[in-house]
Design brief:
By secondary structure, this protein is mostly helical. The chain has 11 helices and 4 strands. The longest helix is centred in the middle third of the chain and has 34 residues, at 124-157. The two termini are 31 Å apart.
Amino acid sequence: MMYLLLLLGFVLLIKGADLFVDGSASIAALLKIPSLIIGLTIVAMGTSAPEAAVSITAGLAGNSDISLGNIVGSNIFNLLMVIGISALIRPVETAPEIKRRDLWWNVFVSIALLVTLFDRKISFLEGLIFLALMAFYLFLLIRNAKKNTASAAVAAASLERPAVFPSILRVLTGLTAVILGGNLVVKNASLIAASLGMSDTLIGLTIVAIGTSLPELATSIVAAKKGDSGIALGNAVGSCLFNILFILGASSVLTPIHASTELFLDTAILIFVSIIILIFAGSRSKTSRMEGAFCILIYLCYTAYIILR
């Protein structure tokens, strides 16, 4: 039964992601907002809903290994596998603003997480700081969106204006399917992994992290196939920022999150990965197929390392 529910979760993820991307692109056209901003905000937050549910619930239950491991593992998966697979399908173009702002923010936030973990925990105050940084980041995005509204309006003027209600319905239906699919995958994959004797830290970094990141993967793959690099890349990077600043921020405000030595090392690896993506996305303003394949190879090596350690 667990395997059938796991399969159903994958189906919901794939179909839900297709509807979600279509609806989000339509809303971007309706609001005359660049798809990159939509990818960094609405899509990123929507696809991070499973991470939020798992990490906050695990944190409240006192299971910090799964709570923090889920976020660190999800971010590594987002940067290496989501961007890597998207680049294999079609080279992912890097918009000037994401190269100038969001990729650097991702490196900065990852370093900030490592600094907070020097004492092996994220305290209430540190959680508040993360939430404040999230608010400031959103402010920057909104200000940038206002500046780009005029140019987006010119581009949208030549396109057929999408209908409001069907666009919203596609977003809500797709998001619901993505969240339900993600929950089914995480729950049943975790049960299967636990039956095989895996530790909480390993489950958090692998099964749960990959499972909760499947919405990002499915959404970015669909966006890449449709040629929308703004949503494909924005979704992956935006989700990483949202995972650390909002989810870990909210979780640690509710209850302090403690980190094992292994998770401290994994956070250091996350910084290394964030710098790699910054270099790849900045070179020729795109992530090529070769670079995408290299990202996937790094992730496979990382997975082998955490299983064997």
